[in-house]
Every structure is written in C-alpha cells, then in structure tokens.
Amino acid sequence: MKPESKAMAASQTALRALRRKLPGRVLVDAESCFDASIDNLRLSFLPDAVVRVETAAEVGTALKLAYKYSIPVTARGAGSSATGSAVPLRGGWVLDLSLLTEIQIDTVSRLVTVGAGVVTAEMQAQVEAVGLFYPPDPSSKKYSTMGGNIACNAGGLRCVKYGVTRDYVLGLEGFYADGSPFKLGLALKKYVSGLNIRDLLIGSEGTLGVMTSATLKLIPKPEKRWTGMFAFKSEAAALKTVAALFEAGVNPSILEFLDRQSVTCAERYTGKSIFADCPRSSILLIEVDGRPAEVREQRVRLLEFMEGRALAHREARTDAKAEELWKVRRTCSQSMFSIADTKLNEDVVVPIQKQAELIRYTIALKKEIGLATPTFGHAGDGNLHVHIMYNRSNPEDAVKAKAGIKKLMQKVVDLGGVITGEHGVGLAKAPFLEMQHSKAEIAMMLAVKAALDPKGILNPGKIFEPFEVWDHEPVKVELPWDHR
Questions:
Q1: Distance between CA 232 and CA 278 in Å, rounded?
Q2: Can you give the pTM of this predicted structure?
C-alpha cells in the first residue's frame, strides 16, 4: 500500500474510533468544517472533522486517539486570530473549545477560574459585578475566548498600566499532545515548585498543549476613570509627548495614539471632524483610573502637562462621554477600507523612545511604495499597529505591499523591537521569525516543541515553517466581529 493510502486508511480508522468514543461530538458536514477552517486572516484550510467538546476530559480522549494515529490537531475558540493561528493548515481535527464556559470566582483570594471557551468580556463583566477587575482588554474582547487570549498572550489598551495576559495567569489545566493531563501552577499567588512550564504554554499558540481551563488573579476594580483626547500638529509631537509624560510621573491606564492617516480615515468614514479647529491632527487618547482623589490629581497634572504641547483637547468625566471619545479609536480599523480593500495589520513593538522614529519610517515607507500606511495603537507600551493598505486584485500593489512589510519588520528589529506584541506569529509572521531570533534560539524553541509534541501533531505548520500569505487567496466571508 502506498504511503498516501496508508495515511488515508489510518485517518479513517481514527475518525471511526473518535466517533465511537465521543458520539454526537464529531462533525464532518461541509458547513461545520468550513466554519472551523478560517480565522480573521481569512485563509481557509479544511479539517477532516470538528470535535465540539463539552468537557475537559473529552479533549484528552480526542488527543489520545490523534496521537495514536498521528492526526494533526488544531484547537480553537472563537477563531479571531489575526495571524492564522487557529486554522487547520494540515487538515486533521479541529478541537472546538467554545463550550468550555464555566466561570468560578473566589472573592477572598481574588481569583477566577475560567474554561478555555469563556468570552473575555463576559468574564470581565462577572468579576466587575463583585467589585473585582481583570485588566487585559484586547480589542476583540467581546468575542475572543480566554483560551485564545492565553495562547497568544493577548494585551489590549490597559497594558500600559496593568500588563498583559501572562501577568495574570496563575495556573493552567489541559492536555499534552499524547492526551496526558497537565496541571501547571495552582490557585495560589506564590508557586515556584519545579520548572515553569506554565509560561512556556502561554503565547505558544496551541503548539505545545491544549489548555482547557485557567486560574487568573484579579485586582480591586478602580473606582473612577477619566478620559481625555489631545490633538497634536504631528506624529512626532504626539509621540515625543508620550515619552515626556512618563518622565513627568503621570501614570495613565490607557495611552493610545492615532497618526494623521488614521484620523483622516476616521473622519472620512464618519463624515465628522474630530477636532474641527485642528484639521489633520495626530491624536493621543489618555485615560487615568483609580480612587476618585487619585484620578482628580492625575487629571490636573495631565492637563497642566499638556499646556503648550497639545493644540486642543476634549475630556470626558462620565462613562457615556468617554465612550464617545473611544468611538474614534474603534472606528479607525474599519474606516481604513475607504483607502483600499485589503489590510495588512502588523502589531509591532518598539521601545517607547523609538516610536517617533518608527512613525517617521512608516511615513517614508508610504512615499517609497506608494501605499497608505495608517498607524495607531498602544503608545503607552510601544505596541503600534502599522497597516499597509492595498487592492489585492492589483498585482503591482500586492508586490509593493509584500516588499513594504518585509522592510517594516526589519526596521522594527533594527530599532530594538519585536515583530509581534499580541497577535502571535501564526502563519502571517512566520517569514519574519529569523529576523527576530538567532538560529540557536529557534533551535531551542524547536527542541521544546519536540519534547512536548514529539509527533508534531499540535497546530502543525505554525510559527516555525515558511508560509507566504500571498500564495493563498482569502475567502470572502462575514465574521461575527465584522463592522462592530
């Protein structure tokens, strides 16, 4: 029997065994397989089956069979990954963890234990209802799941003050590639027993194990917040102000930046001027939170600091008014499609002091390749989202965009930055991994992968293998988070 025939026979045998072990959980219909074939990168790779698990134990059952028959396995929740991390590149089985939605809050220890399928915003709402707070807030929080957040070490707007997902994970439970269970860490704030395998899994994009639940630390909910929006004559003026603001001792919970290209897109999209008296301004959105007296003090210091630096400002002292200001930031992403039909979104990070240099480079790159490069993001921690906009049906534009992304990534590394801050590597960033890491570093990562997944069945083809998004045509599909 030919190798291909043997592999097909093994796959069919494994699928029959899976159906016997997990009756009613295994879906092979065209709609289910297609839905599980894509994420926010919009590239489709069809699985052989979708396993919709309802308990953690069922994950272990599926993995034992997959390991026995060498079946590729891709774990997913909502499928909101921007880099292709959640697509089954090699086919095989997709483990749908979206039904693992249990939430248990410990108000005494200030902890919460969540299933991998828990939607971030739903968990946040529950803990805030009892006066507690889970700070990481990726922009996808209304639909992204905690399993996905942990798999890519998600960040968000509040990272400048509170840190990223990794900073809140105390314990993980799940299964290794062969189906054996792991329990890494406990519901304790102090734990140093053994090697820290837990942190290896955080940010590993499902390549080292499948997490089914996590225990996260919580903090007291801030009592009050205040939001201000500030206009600047240029990107450099705005970003130099960011560095000076930290030197002055202001401690924002959120500090977001919009370049003039992004502002122009938002104004065109909404038909409204953001600062009517300051057209074509670059913008900083700043929020402070804490006790009422602390917020009042920070507001006064911030407004005094901005005198002579900002051209104009607007402020919001209520949640409703703050929401009006944040609409400007949320509008930016969708508004960019008024420029072109395809967007490359790169979540790069550079030192805070180098952000102005990076923006100068993106403006120069715009002129060099003849494509728009609108940029916005988390200026408080140097995590800027640089976009290259192009029309995919135009071959010349596609060539320019591809060249532009490579130049951008090299510039980021040259500035002492990193190619991804919160989206992960997945498929889209795989070509740039060798820019970031030495051969020795990559070899060490692959050794860890081989130790925990010796058959290479967990999310194969991601992070370490060459992949060109340009060789694949995106599917046209409406996803749940589109136009939100």
A1: 8
A2: 0.94
